[in-house]
UniProtKB/TrEMBL annotation:
Gene3D superfamilies, per database record: Winged helix-like DNA-binding domain superfamily/Winged helix DNA-binding domain
Stored SUPFAM superfamilies: Winged helix' DNA-binding domain
Domain named Transcription regulator PadR N-terminal: residues: 12-85
Lineage top rank: taxon: Bacteria
Stated name of the protein: Helix-turn-helix transcriptional regulator
Any Pfam family matching the protein: PadR
Lineage start: Bacteria, Bacillati, Actinomycetota, Actinomycetes, Micromonosporales
Length: 121
């Protein structure tokens, strides 16, 4: 799987960077990492996990039965870690470029005089 990664894929790999997780744990962790912007549905998550396993970025770590249901844990593979590192570098570069351009824009605009807006304190 090449970079750039779609945000859900990036966040799934990020969630798995620390420890193996099962599906529901991944759904919660992705929501937390995205500060609630991204809410994965189970079908979306498991489709993504199947693609990540097929692509060698994620491995099945183990399976256990909880309350009569199979719980599968996934872990980041070495290839997945390499991909996550590459994507992180790519995103960091983009942020650095955008930040530099915004600073240049602000300098070119010159100092701005801030005046209080009437009615607001």
């Amino acid at each position: 799987m090449d970079t750039p990664l779609r945000e859900p894929t990036f966040l799934i790999l990020t969630a798995l960077a620390v420890e193996p997780m099962h599906g529901y744990g991944l759904i919660r962790e992705v929501a937390a990492l995205s500060e609630g912007r991204l809410s994965l549905r189970p079908g979306t998550l498991y489709g993504a996990l199947d693609r990540l396993v097929d692509g060698g970025l994620v491995h099945i770590d183990r399976e256990e039965t909880v309350d009569g249901r199979l719980r599968r844990y996934y872990r980041l593979s070495p290839t997945g870690a390499t991909t996550l590192h590459a994507e992180t570098r790519r995103l960091r570069h983009n942020v650095d470029v955008a930040t530099a351009r915004l600073r240049k824009r602000a300098r070119a605009a010159g100092p701005t005089v801030r005046r209080p807006v009437e009615g607001l304190t």
